[in-house]
Specification:
Elements (H helix, E strand, L loop, with lengths): L14 H26 L6 H40 L14 H56 L6 H32 L8 E4 H18 L2 E7 L5 E4 L1 H18 L4 E10 L2 E9 L5 H5 L24 H11 L3 E7 L2 E9 L7 H7 L1
Parallel strand pairs: 2-4
Antiparallel strand pairs: 1-3, 4-5, 5-7, 6-7
Length: 367
């Protein structure tokens, strides 16, 4: 709180001036009162000399206490507030509306309590997130691992009817190992991105050529699943500073997410555009409608919507794909957002066309 020079001479804004003024006023009033008593008691031996002095001391301390009583009351309020906060009630706030030094102290105490409360809340959220991470990872690792052990036990015990069933067991076990490997890879990638240790190698890349390459690789897979791909690219320069490998990973996650949840048959629309200093990339697809509370959690790690909404032939992920994609885009100094309207999903990437300054710390803060 900034204070002007004249605030130091303001009775309501300066405790020091109030204390000094209280001493002066108390002294003046007691001198005047003592003079009156001395005048009336002047002829009385001993009492006329001693009693005015007693009146002087008593009046001085009484008046000084009365003048300083509001300050003492505020100190008591501050002390009670500090004791309450010290006992663990960080939601307590010191209720002082004065504008003097004690008001500043009360405001600083409230700020301290607010910051401590926020810090503890964040620590609890981090701890809860760690427990949730351990629980989710344990569950997602155990599910395919249990299936693999089951198939291997069947093979070990020769519990199959013919060679065809034998191959089916091996194929299913292999599929589960691939699912397990993808989960571990996703988990490793996510922890690397959110730990703040990832270093991106930025370089100028023609995004038009890069997207054409991604689409050419994705289109056959989409056609196999009854999905057509529509491409809309604006004319003009589309060069961006990116880490090509990481950026392709983010785009691939979005495309696979669209492919997994799109209704059959339908169309996935891919758009590339340039808007001022940003380059935008949009992936639109039609899927089964979801509730508002599900929409808000799509970018949360390990969050999975109802498995019945996804194509059964597509491998089930760990719920990290969108979280990884958003982390990668944030490390590029960009943003990944979702627009939704009656089952129509549009994931939009916006990245700066210029070379981004170090954004790794900003990305970690947003997580």
């Amino acid at each position: 709180m900034s204070r002007s020079f004249w605030d130091h001479f303001n009775w309501k804004k300066s405790v020091r001036f109030r204390m000094f003024g209280s001493i002066v006023l108390s002294f003046v009033v007691t001198v005047f009162a003592s003079s009156i008593w001395e005048y009336f008691l002047e002829g009385i031996p001993l009492i006329g000399r001693v009693f005015p002095f007693i009146i002087f001391l008593g009046s001085f301390f009484l008046l000084f206490f009365l003048f300083m009583h509001p300050v003492i009351t505020r100190l008591q309020v501050i002390n009670e507030g500090l004791m309450t906060i010290a006992n663990g009630n960080l939601s307590c706030r010191v209720q002082l509306s004065c504008k003097d030094e004690l008001g500043e102290i009360a405001s600083n105490i409230n700020d301290m309590a607010e910051r401590l409360q926020t810090m503890i809340h964040k620590e609890r959220m981090v701890e809860a997130a760690k427990m949730e991470l351990i629980t989710n990872v344990s569950h997602d690792l155990r599910t395919p691992l249990t299936s693999i052990i089951g198939y291997l036990n069947l093979l070990l015990d020769d519990d199959y009817q013919n060679l065809t069933e034998h191959k089916r067991y091996i194929r299913n076990a292999f599929y589960k190992t691939q699912q397990l490997k993808k989960l571990i890879d996703d988990l490793f990638e996510y922890t690397r991105l959110t730990s703040g240790t990832v270093q991106l190698g930025f370089q100028a890349v023609d995004l038009r050529s890069l997207f054409n390459q991604i689409i050419n690789e994705f289109e056959p897979l989409a056609q196999q699943n009854g999905i057509t791909v529509s491409v809309e690219m604006e004319q003009g320069e589309a060069t961006g500073w990116i880490d090509a490998e990481m950026f392709v990973r983010a785009v691939d996650n979005l495309l696979m997410n669209a492919l997994k949840f799109s209704v059959r048959p339908s169309e996935i629309t891919i758009k590339l555009y340039r808007k001022k200093e940003n380059i935008g990339f949009v992936i639109e697809n039609l899927a089964e409608p979801i509730a508002e509370h599900q929409l808000e959690r799509l970018f949360e790690r390990f969050y999975k919507v109802d498995a019945s909404r996804s194509e059964q032939n597509m491998p089930q992920g760990a719920g990290l794909g969108l979280s990884i994609a958003r982390s990668i885009i944030m490390h590029h100094g960009g943003s990944l957002n979702l627009a939704y309207d009656q089952g129509r999903f549009a994931f939009r990437i916006d990245i700066p066309a210029h070379h981004p300054i170090d954004t790794s710390n900003d990305a970690d803060d947003k997580e």
